[in-house]
Amino acid sequence: MLAEYYLHNLDPVLFQFTEKLAIRWYGLAYVLSFVLGFFLLRFLVRRGYSELKEDQVADFITFCALFGVMLGGRLGYMLFYDFDNFIHAPWIFFNFLQGGMASHGGILGLVIFTWFYARRHKISWTGVGDNLVVVAPIGLFLVRLANFINGELYGRVTSVSWAMKFPGEIYDMSPVRLQELLVKTGLPYPEAVIEANRNGVVAVQTVLREFLEPRHPSQFYEAGLEGLALFVILLFVRLRWKNLYHGVLTGLFFIFYAVFRISAENFREPDASLILGLPRGQFYSLFMILIGVAFVIAAFKNKRVNQPVSDQ
């Protein structure tokens, strides 16, 4: 007899200070991403892989975090996944505590920010991007792990032995089935059910196991593909060919990220309506392949390589 599927009951809060003040795993993932990104980018700069100066790295990463990842990711979510609500109430953009970030938006935000930064400092835009894309998968990896801890962006229904049951599924249940669940648990609303599960209330967990479907832990698939595998590939290319034409690595990032994202989306439950029959993550990623190819072609056409930092 097979063991029961794992019932997700992790708490997204690491430390709770007051009712409204807490340290969450999701926020910590972003902070750790920026810290690790700083050290890796500084490592590359010190070894001559970038036209950035060492004393520019801290400010560059900070601005990337604020204007690229945070603003771009949030705006991307509003435009790509919550457009109707955003148009009718634009101020919801500032509801950061309610969550809602899009990796495609964060990537687009970084592209725009690095373009302005490169023009301001008179350095190669694609050269700056080639090093930033080596750093970026660290954040993608950590944020996907945080998605798992939060129990969000889970996978499609499956019968594989490593499948898991995610309580967040109750928000997508039909009203009749949800009411049946609440009656059986004796709890008044879904949030109470999820909280009881996190607190290890066995009676509630028993009922949840009956109502929830086993699903792919797709957060791990994405962390492994978009994060770890992408990082290994880009870091290997970066360290192996120091004088690679500017834009090649950026192009490879777009291509491989898109391929990995499209692959992982086959196991992930769509969290928004489909576009032309495709999950939005897959649809948007198709354009990234074309963008990546364009970066590679432009790189071999321009043949730009790093200029000595002292000549800036």
Walk me through what this model shows.
The protein is mostly helical and 312 residues long. It folds into 2 domains: 6-166 and 212-305, no CATH class; 167-211, no CATH class. Helices cover 61% and strands 4% of the residues. The chain has 11 helices and 4 strands, in the order βββαααααβαααααα. It has helices at residues 25-46, 57-80, 83-88, 103-121, 125-150, 175-185, 190-198, 202-211, 218-240, 248-265, 280-302; strands at residues 6-7, 13-16, 22-24, 164-165. A two-stranded parallel ribbon has the order 1-4. Strands 2-3 form a two-stranded antiparallel sheet. The longest helix is centred in the middle third of the chain and has 26 residues, at 125-150. It is elongated and about 70 Å long. It starts with 5 loop residues before the first strand and ends in a 10-residue tail after the last helix. 39% of the residues are buried. The model has no long low-confidence stretch (mean pLDDT 90).
Break the fold down into its secondary structure elements and pairings.
Elements: E1 6-7, E2 13-16, E3 22-24, H1 25-46, H2 57-80, H3 83-88, H4 103-121, H5 125-150, E4 164-165, H6 175-185, H7 190-198, H8 202-211, H9 218-240, H10 248-265, H11 280-302
Parallel strand pairs: 1-4
Antiparallel strand pairs: 2-3
Helix pairs in contact: 1-2, 1-5, 2-4, 4-5, 5-9, 5-10, 6-8, 9-10, 10-11
